[in-house]
Each structure stands twice: as structure tokens, then as C-alpha cells.
Write a structure and sequence with these properties.
The protein has about 200 residues and is an all-alpha fold. It has two domains: about 55 residues, Homeodomain-like (Arc Repressor Mutant, subunit A), CATH 1.10.10; about 140 residues, Tetracycline Repressor, domain 2. Helix 5 packs antiparallel against helix 6, helix 6 packs across helix 7 and helix 6 packs parallel to helix 9. The longest helix has 26 residues.
Amino acid sequence: MTVHSGETTARRGRPGYDRDQVLAVAVQLFNEQGYDATSVADLASRLGLTKSALYHHFSSKEELLAIALETALSGLEAVLDRALAVEAPASDRLTAVISGAVGVLTDELAPVTLLLRLRGNSAVETAALERRRVFDQQVTALVRAAQDEGRIRTDVDAGVATRLIFGMINSVVEWYRPDGRVDPDLLAQDVLRVALDGLHPREQ
């Protein structure tokens, strides 16, 4: 009987997943167990593959981490870059960043969750945390510019305002589910209302 190559592959336990599928399972497992606590053997077991089959797709556990973090960070940085490139009041650009950040979170929930749980225990994690720090600094500068325009109250420190805004955005990873009843576009609008209404200048 002739055995087709696809059947041979399945019988040998060779990868039945493409790279994106392996990455998705890896990120899910990292989020469940913690990156440091997850071994390559754990991942191979979850996938039903041998370690050698897993290495067919990725060279190391750290490579999986790096790719996932790049997905999250590049999404957030792209949102900020687009907002900064627009000729508009700082408050409008800040609105775009907040709305866009919520969109990145809901579109890339698992990678962003992984980013938010980093402990900085490796060079890859440290580099990612530095990029987050730079992102936060740029958003803080936007908040400060909006204060200078008179569009945001000045009795709240710009850095504190940024942390409070993104504290709320980041908390979404704890309860948002893509298959749930919350519409991601409406969620972005709700976050904007709650985040910015309290920062509007008080009427004299």
C-alpha cells in the first residue's frame, strides 16, 4: 500500500501545526503557568509533539517569547507613531492613542497579557520593558502637551495620569474575552469616557 507523505508526517509525530499555531499555544501556556515556569517539555506535551518536532518551528523558548512580545510592542508603538504623525491638538492625539491601545489589546490579547506580566528575568524581557518605558514616557509627554493646551486639568501630574489611564486599559486583560459579549469598539469608547472625563478641566 502506498503511504502518502502527509500520512507519514502524521505517523512520525512531525509538526501538525504551523508557526503561528505553535506560537499561539506557547503564549497561552506562558500566560497560564508563567514564562519561567514553562519548559520546552511542557510546551511539546501541550502540543502533542516531540521536542525535535517543536524545534522544527522555533529554535528556543526564548525565540517564542521574543516574537510574542514583538507583536504586542510593535502594535502599541504603531498606534503611538500614527498619533504623533498627525497634525492635531495633543488631546486629540492622546484620544487616538488610548483608543488604539485598547484595539491592540483586544486584537492581540494573549501577547499583550504576556507583556504585562514580564518580570525582566532575561535580556529579551529587559529589552521589552525598556520599550514599554519609552512608550509610557511618550504618552506622558502627550498628556503634558494637552495640559499646556488647557484641554486636560493641570492639578493631576502627567505621569500619574498616564499610569492611571493605562492601569485601566491594562486591567482589561483580566476579564475581556474575544468571544464574550463586550464589543471591542464600544469598549474603546467606554475607556475613553472613563479615562478622560475626569481629566477635563473644571469649569470656573
